[in-house]
Amino acid sequence: MAHDPLAYFKHLLAQSELTAVFTGAGISTESGIPDFRSPGGIWTKNKPINFQDFVSSEDVRRESWQRKIETDKTMSVAQPNNGHMAIANLVNTGQIRHVITQNIDGMHQASGVPDNQVIELHGNATYAGCLECEKRYELDPIKTSFASAGTLPICDDCGGIIKTATISFGQAMPQEAMNRAKAATLDCDLFISIGSSLVVYPAAGFPLLARESGANLVILNRDTTDLDNAADLVINAEIGPTLSGLVAFN
Fold it and tell me: 137-165 pLDDT, tens per residue?
């Protein structure tokens, strides 16, 4: 490993012809969005809701929408941080081709990454969709109606159940997104994992797939991960300042 990790990071990025970035919750905690699994995270306060329970029980759907209203008090006011902005800069200058993310907060798009270059493995919490016909719904009318009258949203086209456009426990991973992520991983010559603990599979398998396919692997995370030994470069540091420093070199 190079003596100056940031200089080596810059070197790997500069020599790459096709770079893919993979982001986890750690990049968004600097925007004030809490992690799900860490101490004090959302899942330490509320047990995750299973998809089949959501579909089969009105009571569970009411609980889910009540939680959504509460979590949006934080998420809806959060703004992209320096890490998001640095990635957007590198995407828009052509140095990063794809952003694969485990996050559901829409921060990459909000920072300026084109939607067609963001691959969301766990969906998106900034809008909702019908589980039957997939019609898209904006959240504000749903939350207003639920808060005022306790009305559960039903699709006005097909009568199907409406759910936030996220992937819940027990729900199948989005096949199109998984296929796109696999293709991007196999095509890249540099894979950068940022802010992910790399413990949630199948998503966490992409960094190792990239390494096994011949790509250089960089892991930027506050804490160590189980894949650190497979990486060409590991930086355990705050994400925003590190990526800001990287962009400053370019």
Answer: 999 999 999 999 999 999 999 999 999 99
At residue 26, what are phi and psi to the nearest 5 degrees? Answer: -60, -25
143 close to 65: Cβ distance less than 8 angstroms: yes
What string of DSSP letters covers 15-50? H-SSEEEEE-THHHHTTTPPPSSSTTSHHHHSPPPB
In the set 84, 98, 108, 122, the catalytic residue is 122
Q: What is the pLDDT of residues 168-177, one digit of tens each?
A: 999 999 999 9
**Domains (range + CATH), the chain:** 1-33+80-122+174-250 (3.40.50.1220), 44-77+125-166 (3.30.1600.10)
With 0-12 / 13-18 / 19 or more C-beta atoms within 10 angstroms meaning exposed / middle / buried, residue 172 is exposed
Indicate yes or no: pTM above 0.70. yes
Q: What is the rounded distance in angstroms from the CA atom of residue 86 to the CA atom of residue 248? A: 9
Cα–Cα distance, 182 to 176 (Å, whole number): 10
User: Catalytic annotation on 108?
Assistant: no
Residue with tokens 């949006």: 72
